Amino acid sequence: MTGRRRTRSPFHRTPRGPARSAARVAAALAAGASLVAGCGVVPGTDGTGGTVTVMTWAPSGTSGTNKPGMPAFAQAYARWINAHGGLGGRKLEVLTCNERNDSVAAAKCARTAVKRDVVAVVGSYSLYGDSYLPTLEGAGIPYIGGYGATNAELTSPLSYPVNGGQPTLLAGLGRELAAGCGPVVLVRPDTIGGDELPPMLDSGLKARGHAAAVDERAADDTTEYAVPSTRALTAASARPGEKGCVIPALGDSTGTFMDSFRRARQKFPAVRTAATLGNVDQTAINASGGASGPYEGAFVTGWYPDASDARWAGMKKVIKEQAFDDNRIDPADAGVQTTWIAYTVLKAVVASLGGGEVTSATVRRALNGGLAVTTGDLTPTLKWGFQGELASIGLSRLVNAEVTLQVVRDGRLVPARKGFTDVTDTLRDAKVN
């Protein structure tokens, strides 16, 4: 389709692709190590008692998905940790960058990170992994706790994800919907990142004997969705007597889609809706009418426990002490939650180094060397090896395939069941090529 920026997807590469990527990174790291050894300068930190410099980026003020709470929370975390003795006595400095939902801006953020000698990029959001990851790989800078916006984060040797990205959310949602839905329709962005979504949803549906979803592509930056809404409703109600399900996955534009969907659905038989957290949250449910809106009864998959869970107390303490009046930071936002977990990982890495220097190289070595990070049961224990269990489908860095299931009941997003569901086995059968 014209007007789409085509780049190589991690699922459209030759079998030798991952090996070439690892070799490229290894060569770049070796070259970087030689330069450091030659000039005697170690970037990113002043050593024990010095400063640890990292970067967090996310889009803000755009017509598409915006995540201003992520860099805002990162700076609040820096103020909080520094007020409590820093990272093992070291001051934490957080640089931020507006990624602007743009590949050029994403690449510029990465170049700035390299120029400023950060030890890691932490808790960030971008749809353009192919634009920023090569730059970080070339400089040997680890990417810790990305939002999981694209599958590139689950393949790069220097990426250390804390969640399973959209693959796990969609696989888990597919498993749940298979038994109770007629035709399932996925409404997703007509973008490279959007191309990665259908196989993951289909893996969950097919695991429970359901047909693949209808793939409805739509722009993610338009002001109305009358045509995609009508197409989705037509497909979802194609089999009389079976209530279909519509899954909007358009990021911040999901609310705009649902405005059109509400108007169009009056002309069609009743259908269910479902979503993944990040596309729909409590704010979106309230804005769409609460208990009388289109999400009532909808299942929503997430990566983490419900925002009211006591396990978020640490994050909420940071917000209360350092960002109480910052309305960019929503403790129920999956982006803010991911940033909290990512900085929890960073803190654990620095602690593991003791009095040693904190550099991009030492951070990498700690993460690659078997460091196990606990997150207060917000995730399973995180530990990154050379390849994860889903390397066979290209997701070599995915180490957390657990999801939670919530449901909209009386207009409130509440847990549908206790605990996590592991979708590793479901994703093993995903048709990603």
TrEMBL record:
Bias-annotated ranges (Basic residues): 1-15
Region (Disordered) location: 1-20
Membrane-traversing stretches: none
Keywords on record: Signal
Highest taxon above the source species: Bacteria
InterPro entries: Leu-bd (IPR028081), Peripla_BP_I (IPR028082), Rhodanese-like_dom (IPR001763)
Gene3D superfamilies the UniProt entry points to: 3.40.50.2300
Family matches, as Pfam families: Peripla_BP_6
Domain Rhodanese: 78-137
UniProt family annotation: Belongs to the leucine-binding protein family.
Name of protein: ABC transporter substrate-binding protein
Organism field: Streptomyces doudnae
